[in-house]
């Protein structure tokens, strides 16, 4: 019996051990299941956290935009779309010119004043002109009136190099900064640029020949005629919209082509995105207009124009041929978003009520025949 009991006891032990092994396996299996379930859950949490963060980021990019006043895809024609805004007190600090000084303020957009073909012609002109030089950073300008052209980290004057005098002094101006360059034309027709305050003599460059030869191909009389026509039509629509006498408003400086891309800024001149008030930045401006020469979304991304109002921001999306215009005081604080891709072209054409700040339409310098 004893051996049987023993066998039985052994048998019971073996069954117990087998049970334990099975339980152990099941437990291990269970814990590996639990482990992978935990991993999947963690992954899901991480993914949804990522998704939420991305969503928050994307919406935060847009969250400062309360309203799109005019999108690129729509066509505002023939009448401008007008948004009235209460005039700021800025104009009280200046002499008032009845029939011109803003009494009604606001902003308006029209696609009915400049055709897309005209915008394309002007854009080609901007491309050719700015290809002569251009800023090292993302924002270049070509001022048609003064001839100031971004070059590297500074500006050159493509017009002043023309008169056949030997020594010229001129000022290149953008915003509040004025650079005075003295240009000496040497016997070889090369020019030496020097600027007061810099002890070292700067560049000996073939500017005179370079721009002289290039300019003939870049600007024709027709181009300047087109600028004049467009300027006249813009003046008319501003006068109509704000109830002004167009004969009492004058083109003022600066009036320039701008080319913006996503290259990192190299100097302050490239930092076009800062909020500003045109009347403060440019002084003489009473009405600002912007003629866009390229399309938001297909020629470039970013680069929307943003009115920064107290109760939110309102955008205008550039469209080739679109004219956006507004009274230049602090009722129209604005900025341009950074361009994130592509190239954005525009022209700034602005008007003053003060005859002393009037400029004549840009024209080809004497001696250059288109
Ligand atoms: O190009 C734009 O949309 C605006 C430029 C601007 O604000 C300016 O020239 O003062
Ligand atoms: Fe501006």
From TrEMBL:
Point out the coiled-coil segments of this chain.
Answer: none
Task: Could you list this entry's UniProt keywords, alphabetically sorted.
Answer: Dioxygenase, Iron, Membrane, Metal-binding, Oxidoreductase, Transmembrane, Transmembrane helix
Pfam families assigned: 2OG-FeII_Oxy_3
Alphabetized InterPro entries for the sequence: OGFOD3, Oxoglu/Fe-dep_dioxygenase_dom, Pro_4_hyd_alph, Pro_4_hyd_alph_FE2OG_OXY
Gene3D superfamilies named in the record: q2cbj1_9rhob like domain
What GO cellular component entries does it have?
A: membrane
Domain Fe2OG dioxygenase: where? Answer: 253-354
Highest taxon listed in the record's lineage: Eukaryota
Q: Where are the transmembrane segments?
A: 38-58
Needed cofactors, names only, are:
L-ascorbate
GO terms assigned for molecular function? dioxygenase activity; iron ion binding; L-ascorbic acid binding; oxidoreductase activity, acting on paired donors, with incorporation or reduction of molecular oxygen
- Could you identify this protein by its name? Fe2OG dioxygenase domain-containing protein
